[in-house]
């Protein structure tokens, strides 16, 4: 990751002006070509820690690996973060400082429209596994005509930052996300740090989790991941199709859950959190990279 930043710094003098639309796009393309996406992989501190999942109900299955009590409703908002429904001033100041540092490290000038806290720490389902999910709201259209390129750059930049830093606030890891102002963000708990108010205030009476269904959905996907792993390198073409199909299924699973009446507390979203917590999604991503490398290699016996 340090190499990525050294490459960025080495081009400051020859990069186009940040005020030029064309210059911004050229900067995006250069950074994407030399940045995180070219190297791939996971830093050592974030290597997946995935344990093979047994079939539902079998010894060693999720019933023994996941503490479902961590998904239960809490009696109050996280008291280290909020007091009387308002984010504590010291917490807000520190989080804004972290965002400021991230934005200063970008190669383009970005003026956020808002900075928002979302996820379980902006709700009543927080636990020791929660992250501080900070979303920086930006108007992508103001940065260039190619919004997909802008999005790709921000994804690479924030992934690099999240991998490079290990900042915790009261034990909760800080994760930064970039979000287009035109993008719809579905969340029953959404707090504006800049406005110092709730955009969507969570309702503690709406928390009702179907643990059984969440178990079944996550177990099914983890079983499929393990099955694909058994033939991935022997039959890479078939494995790649299965991996892409399963990744699409996971995306649909979470999307359906968040769009449902229960939103974050839906069985689908809880299943997604189980998969993420157990490292199953990282394992699936690793398999995709390995299978792609196998497909692109030549001259092997």
What does this structure look like?
- The chain is built from ten helices and eight strands.
- The protein has 301 residues and is of the alpha+beta class.
- The strands form two sheets. Strands 5-6-4-3-7-8 form a six-stranded mixed β-sheet.
- The protein starts with a helix and ends in a 5-residue tail after the last helix.
Strand order of the largest sheet: 5-6-4-3-7-8
Low-confidence stretches are 1-21, 34-64
Mind summarizing the main beta sheet?
A: 6 strands, mixed
Q: How much of the polypeptide forms β-strand, as a percent range?
A: 5-15%
The helix tally amounts to 10
End-to-end CA span: 34 Å
Mean of residue pLDDT values: 76
Helix-and-strand structural type = alpha+beta
- Shape field: globular
State Rg. Answer: 21 Å
Structure summary, number of beta strands: 8
As a percent range, the share of helical residues equals 40-55%
* Series of secondary-structure elements, N-terminal to C-terminal: HHHHEEHEEHEEEEHHHH
Assembly annotation: single chain
Notable characteristics:
301 residues, alpha+beta, 8 strands
Write the layout of secondary structure elements.
Blueprint: H1 2-10, H2 21-34, H3 36-39, H4 62-65, E1 82-83, E2 86-87, H5 89-104, E3 114-118, E4 131-138, H6 147-164, E5 168-169, E6 172-180, E7 190-192, E8 197-200, H7 211-231, H8 236-259, H9 267-277, H10 280-296
Parallel strand pairs: 4-6
Antiparallel strand pairs: 1-2, 3-4, 3-7, 5-6, 7-8
